[in-house]
Amino acid sequence: MTPLAPQIRKLHLIQIVAACLGTALSIYLLVHHTRVNLGIQDSSSFCSFGGLADCDVNVSKYSEVAGVPLAAIGAIYFFVLLILGLLVPPKNPNFQIVGRFLAWLSSWLC
């Protein structure tokens, strides 16, 4: 075992937890976006100031790209990060290759 092994395992765990949180938050935002668009829920948020300002981005025209909600894109992105993180643990010989791919994917999409 190299001295970096415990640190790599810790960072791998942080990556999995962050991917879980990102997936959960993206799904929550997708549900909220869908409910607002279908009229099931009004778009009032805690920072709504009547007609002056509203910080709920789900009612904005920028909440979708080509008709696809950004929350759906985020959910797919974080789910891919989660699956790759779970399928390729640090003991796997392909861990470095997948780690580089995940780093590239994270830097490209952020």
Helix and strand topology:
Layout: H1 5-38, E1 64-65, E2 68-69, H2 70-87, H3 95-109
Antiparallel strand pairs: 1-2
Helix pairs in contact: 1-2
Tell me what you see in this structure.
By secondary structure, the protein is mostly helical. The longest helix is centred in the N-terminal third of the chain and has 34 residues. The model has no long low-confidence stretch (mean pLDDT 79).
Q: Distance N terminus to C terminus? A: 33 Å
Number of helices: 3
Q: Can you summarize the main beta sheet?
A: 2 strands, antiparallel
Approximately what portion of the residues adopt beta-strand conformation?
under 5%
Give the spatial strand order of the biggest sheet. 1-2
Mean pLDDT: 79
Number of domains as seen in the coordinates? 1
Shape estimate: elongated
Q: What low-confidence regions span 5 or more consecutive residues with pLDDT below 50?
A: none
Beta-strand segment tally: 2
The sequence of SSEs as H and E is HEEHH
Percent range for helical residues? 55-70%
Tell me the radius of gyration.
Answer: 18 Å
Structural class: mainly alpha
